[in-house]
Design a protein that fits this description.
The complex is a heterodimer of chains A (about 160) and B (about 300). By secondary structure, chain A is mainly β. Chain A has a single domain, classed as Sandwich (Immunoglobulin-like), CATH 2.60.40. Helices cover about 10% and strands about 45% of the residues of chain A. The radius of gyration of chain A is 20 Å and the shape is flat. The N and C termini of chain A lie far apart (about 60 Å). The radius of gyration of chain B is 27 Å and the shape is elongated. In chain B, the strands form 8 sheets. In chain B, strands 19, 20, 23, 24, 25 and 29 form a 6-stranded antiparallel sheet that branches. Chain B has a 5-stranded antiparallel sheet with strand order 7-9-14-11-12, with no helix packed on it. A 5-stranded mixed sheet of chain B has the order 8-18-15-10-13, with no helix packed on it. Chain B has 2 domains: about 140 residues, Sandwich (Immunoglobulin-like), CATH 2.60.40.10; about 100 residues, Immunoglobulin-like (Sandwich). With about 300 residues, chain B is mainly beta. Classes of the chains: A mainly beta (about 160), B mainly beta (about 300). Chains A and B meet through helix 1, strand 1, strand 3 and strand 4 of A and strand 1, strand 2, strand 3, strand 4 and strand 5 of B.
Chain lengths: ~160, ~300
């Protein structure tokens, strides 16, 4: 009994310790264009500040494994914010990953070619604006390393 | 080095968009494994505030030049102002004209339409500024007098300025406290021109409609009135007025009248009235004849 309690306690402590080592942080950006004196345009991504209908916002989720053990089976789910529409082909990741999408609020995720919406005559391949969630799957995130996943969405 | 900052915006078909001040929240969730242990954590919540888009468009609603006669007064050109932003705004106006016009109009005034789309000194109001909600439109009339020596074309119009805009140029923004106002209207959308064309003698038909009910129901009656006017001075002969009955309606028998007296024919698709010659000695915009008839909504 005492051994069982101690084992459980040790597992809980270990869990708490390991949990704190992988973090995810989210930021939003929008494109800025500066026209220099000779007419050259310089594009860059800056922290999103002036978001008006029609604007495109780039969301970046940064991952960091601060621990000493490699993390595996990383699944990042990102609901597309209300009033935003996903911009086609903009979900990506640093390194290697699999990207799927949901059209049912995150209940299921499929590849683009498998996302059908509507019934009967109205059944069609879902448009990117109809996606509700995005999922990235990374096999591993090594100890002491970083990665990121991102996507772009347009404000309605 | 002069740096000009622009915000890259995409055109959207829906001009209004999400209201200014709305919060946009993004938050992701991460599931992962460390050995045999599984973990779930959420990212921070990113909150962006929707800014106000200052966007408006002024367009001329006349598809062709408005035919006018010399010395005519209070002739109107119709314009449509739309608030294409995502918040309310107040607009003031400036009369503009095309310097290449053949003549200059006189006594320029701007009127706000009362909603019927037809200019009337009685029912429309002189205007200096207008408040519009997001995606709201209104009709304005540029009204002026035609000089007695006018000939050819004269292009005139209205330029709009937004109270929120202030001194902002396209791409500029200003902090309103909770969010920014961003100028997204380009210069060429802020004004438009319509044209007068002087005709020394012509017939002008002005048609109005009155509904018998508050809304167009099946069985409602539409009463049409066609004012026959002469532009300029002179004699016009062999005037025939025809008007095709709108789809979805049926002519009400025995309602066709000329100046209040039964006259003319209905041939199954259109009313037809032949009017005697009209001679106009002094230029006037008053109707010389009035044709009326009724149709019923099917």
């Amino acid at each position: 009994m005492r051994k069982t309690i101690l084992t459980a306690l040790f597992a809980m402590i270990a869990s708490v310790t390991l949990h704190a080592n992988v973090t995810i942080s989210s930021l939003s950006y929008q494109e800025q264009i500066k026209v220099e004196s000779k007419g050259k345009k310089v594009r860059s991504w800056v922290k999103a500040e002036k978001v008006v209908p029609g604007s495109i916002v780039r969301y970046v989720n940064s991952l960091e494994n601060k621990g000493t053990q490699n993390a595996s089976k990383l699944v990042i789910n990102n609901p597309i914010p209300e009033n935003m529409e996903y911009v086609a082909d903009t979900a990506s990741c640093q390194g290697s990953c699999t990207v799927t999408y949901s059209i049912d609020g995150g209940k299921s995720f499929k590849k683009v070619s498998e996302l059908f919406i509507g019934e009967g005559d109205e059944r069609h391949l879902a448009r990117p604006a109809e996606y509700t969630d995005i999922r990235w799957v990374l096999d591993t995130l090594d100890a002491k390393s970083k990665s990121s996943v991102e996507y772009k969405a347009r404000l309605k | 080095m002069r740096i000009i900052l622009f915000i890259l915006l995409l055109n959207v078909l829906n001009a209004q968009g999400i209201p200014a001040g709305t919060k946009i929240e993004n938050q992701a969730q991460l599931n992962y494994s460390l050995g045999s242990a599984n973990f779930t954590i959420a990212s921070n919540k990113v909150i962006d505030i929707v800014d106000q888009k200052i966007d408006m468009k002024m367009i001329c609603q006349e598809s062709t030049p408005i035919i006018v006669g010399v010395a005519e007064t209070k002739r109107a050109l119709s314009f449509r102002l739309t608030n294409r932003g995502n918040g309310s705004d107040s607009y003031s106006f400036l009369e503009v004209n095309d310097a290449s016009s053949d003549f200059e109009v006189q006594n320029r005034e701007l009127y706000l339409d009362n909603g019927d789309g037809v200019f009337s000194v009685v029912s429309d109001t002189l205007v200096s500024d207008v408040n519009l909600s997001a995606d709201e439109s209104t009709t304005l009339f540029f009204v002026s007098d035609i000089p007695s020596d006018a000939d050819g074309f004269s292009s005139n119009g209205i330029k709009v300025h937004s109270e929120l805009q202030g001194n902002l140029l396209y791409g500029d923004s200003k902090n309103l406290g909770t969010y920014y106002a961003v100028m997204t209207a380009k210069e060429d959308a802020l004004s438009d021109l319509c044209s007068y064309e002087v005709s020394h003698l012509a017939i002008d038909l002005e048609k109005t409609a009155t509904l018998s009910s508050d809304k167009p129901y099946v069985g409602s009656t539409i009463h049409y009135s066609i004012a026959v006017k002469v532009i300029g001075t002179g004699k016009v002969e062999d005037i025939v007025v025809e008007d095709i009955i709108p789809d979805g309606t049926a002519y009400v028998p025995n309602t066709l009248q000329l100046d209040g007296v039964a006259f003319g024919d209905f041939n199954g698709t259109a009313i037809r009235i032949e009017v005697d010659e009209i001679e106009q000695v002094v230029a006037s915009s008053d109707p010389r004849h009035t044709i009326t008839f009724d149709v019923k909504i099917l």
